[in-house]
Amino acid sequence: MSRGHLRVLVGALMTAGLIAGAGLVLAQDETGPEPEPSPRDHGVARVAPRLEGRLVDTIGVASFNAWRLLGRAGAKADWDRITGNPDIDLIGWQESKSQIWADLYPDYRARGWETWYWPDVDGPRSVALSWRAKTFELLDVGFTKVHNGGHPSETDAPFPARWVVEASLRHRESGLLVTVLNTHVNQTIETGHGWEENLNAEMARIHYRTLARMYDEAEGDVVIGTGDYNWDYADDSTYLPEGGISRTVAPHARSSYAALGLDGVAPTQGTRWIDYVWLAKASVRHRDGSGTAQFARHRSLSGFASDHSPLLARIRLYGG
Question: Is the predicted pLDDT of residue 2 greater than 70, yes or no?
Answer without folding.
Answer: no
